[in-house]
Design goal:
Structural class: alpha+beta
Strand order of the largest sheet: 3-8-4-5-6-7
Family: Belongs to the peptidase C40 family.
Protein name: C40 family peptidase
Organism: Paracoccus methylovorus
Helix content: 10-25%
Mean pLDDT: 92
Number of helices: 4
Distance between the termini: 10 Å
Strand content: 25-35%
Keywords: Hydrolase, Protease, Thiol protease
Low-confidence stretches: none
């Protein structure tokens, strides 16, 4: 699968900076959550979303038998090892031990990423060692 230009992915993600946090929304400048940010970047880089996103829980400590978010991403994006993640890569974070991955960000540099965070909205910040340890999965945006 041919992947999208990482510079385009980063530029589109940065165009969402300052968007307020709003659970389960995906409108640049109006509101989004972390998955909504990824969905918005997808729409601008790849095209229409391939399937509707069902409602989801905000519980970062949720434990399931299946990695729902990662399994959904695998249906439409090439997966790479987290250690191979580079700028423009979608990264999924496991926020609590033994919980499923429930937070999403996009690498903008080896040590920075963009994500939507409650009370902060869409921000770009340093990928600290604490954040880096929580990366559970990594995916590349395809090119349409």
């Amino acid at each position: 699968m041919i992947t999208a230009d990482p510079d385009l992915v980063i530029a589109v993600a940065r165009s969402w900076l300052g968007t307020p946090y709003h659970d389960q929304a995906s409108l640049r400048g109006v509101g989004c959550d972390c998955l909504g940010l990824a969905r918005g970047v997808w729409r601008e880089v790849v095209g229409d979303e391939p399937f509707p996103i069902p409602p989801y829980s905000r519980d970062w400590g949720e434990t399931e038998l299946h990695e729902v978010l990662a399994e959904g991403a695998r249906q439409m994006m090439p997966e790479i090892m987290p250690a191979e993640a580079r700028p423009g890569t979608l990264i999924l974070f496991r926020m609590a031990p033994r919980a499923i991955a429930k937070h999403v960000g996009i690498l903008t540099a080896p040590d920075h990423f963009i994500h939507a965070y409650e009370r902060l909205g869409v921000v770009e910040e340093v990928l600290t060692p604490t954040w880096a340890r929580k990366i559970a999965f990594a995916f590349l945006f395809p090119r349409d």
